[in-house]
Amino acid sequence: MRWGVWGENFTTAQYEKIINQCLEIGLTQFDHADIYGHYTTEADFGNALKSNSSLRGKMQLITKTGIQMLTPNRPNHAIKSYNTSTQHIKDSVEKSLSNFHTDYIDTLLIHRPDILLDPIAVAECVADLKKEGKIKSFGVSNFSTSQVELIAKHTNIEHHQVEISVTQLASFNDGVLDQCQLKNISAQAWSPWGNGLFTEKTEKNIRILSVAEELAAQYETGVNEILLAFLYAHPANIVPVIGTTQFERIIQAKAAMNISLTTEDFYKLWCASTGAEVA
Ligand SMILES: NC(=O)c1ccc[n+]([C@@H]2O[C@H](COP(=O)([O-])OP(=O)(O)OC[C@H]3O[C@@H](n4cnc5c(N)ncnc54)[C@H](OP(=O)(O)O)[C@@H]3O)[C@@H](O)[C@H]2O)c1
Asked: What's the CA-to-centroid distance between 241 and ligand 1, angstroms?
């Protein structure tokens, strides 16, 4: 999301460089959505895959569908809305395949819970796409537990991408992470470094950063590592979906995998976020 025109706007050579750097350290999964960069980022990233055809086979591509964004790039959209019709999902997958110069997507996610989503139609669509080899796995993003339950009655939900971080604790308590463990759904955390944590000087963010800095000194590491270690402490095997444009921070994300926060240190961060001790 942040590598295209909504962020650093990498050139094809820059994409190729950072993709190679990621692959070299074993980070092989890349998160996209049809809408990123107002429908331009998949293609920008895909140009690197076209320019270096050895890359595609070494990575897994996640992309999303279901949001219709208002943009000059989609003049037929009259309002920002959701669309999970079979036609929309299939058209969107075809565009993603073409953007990435590939014949399969590793993971397709429905980006947001569409009020009009027909679970049986979506299940049939997913079955078709899998049968055709166009998608390898399927999941959702930002759904409630009951919305997941409804689709899961008709098709296998393999991934759920939600916002989870030390600033956004809801999924720990609203059943989403319990459901991921119960149903063997891979939990992906977007904005894992905490939306606005580094940019908005709120009391909550100041509290969190102060505890994270103390822990970073104690564990002889950095704040970024501690913030991801907070997620790794949870038994749901949360997969952070990082959005950095800096390779150094990608290295820090990898280093976080080797840090085991003690239970008390997890709760120091938890309480810094809530601003209260646990009951
Ligand atoms: N499914 C969904 O609905 C949904 C929604 C939003 C995002 N996503 C996905 O999740 C990905 C991650 O989201 P995100 O980018 O918000 O997550 P993030 O990884 O938590 O945040 C990345 C941002 O934080 C900055 N940052 C990190 N460490 C910093 C530090 N120590 N000091 C200052 N700034 C720091 C990064 O700047 P630098 O670039 O300078 O490192 C970047 O702007 C997105 O790229 C997208 O693929 C999904």
From this structure: 8
CATH (domain of 32): 3.20.20.100
Position 197 in a domain:
no
Tell me phi and psi for residue 128, to 5 degrees: -60, -50
Q: Across all residues in the chain, what is the average pLDDT?
A: 98
Determine which residue's CA is closest to atom 43 belonging to ligand 1: 244
Chain centroid offset of residue 248 CA: 19
Tell me if 247 is assigned to some domain. no
Pocket residues for ligand 1 (CB within 6 Å)? Answer: 1-2, 31, 111, 141-142, 161, 190-193, 198, 224, 241-246, 249
pLDDT at 78: 96
**Residues catalogued as catalytic:** 36
* Structural domains counted in the chain: 1
Confidence of residue 224 (pLDDT cuts 50, 70, 90): very high
Query: What domain range is 133 assigned to?
Result: 12-157
Whole-structure pTM value: 0.98
Q: Compute, in angstroms, the gap from residue 193 CA to the centroid of ligand 1.
A: 7
With respect to residue 140, please indicate whether it lies within any of the assigned structural domains: yes
Which residue has the least CA distance to atom 48 on ligand 1?
A: 190
C-alpha to C-alpha distance for 262 and 182, rounded to whole angstroms: 24
Structure tokens at 118: 């027909």
CA of 249 to the centre of ligand 1 (A): 11
Give the model confidence (pLDDT) of 74-131 as tens digits.
999 999 999 999 999 999 999 999 999 999 999 999 999 999 999 999 999 999 999 9
Which residues, at least 6 apart from 43, have a Cβ–Cβ distance to it below 8 Å?
Answer: 99
What separation in angstroms does the CA of 158 have from each of 96, 106, 210, 235? Answer: 20, 11, 36, 17
Nearest residue by C-alpha to atom 16 in ligand 1? 191
Region 202-207 average pLDDT:
98
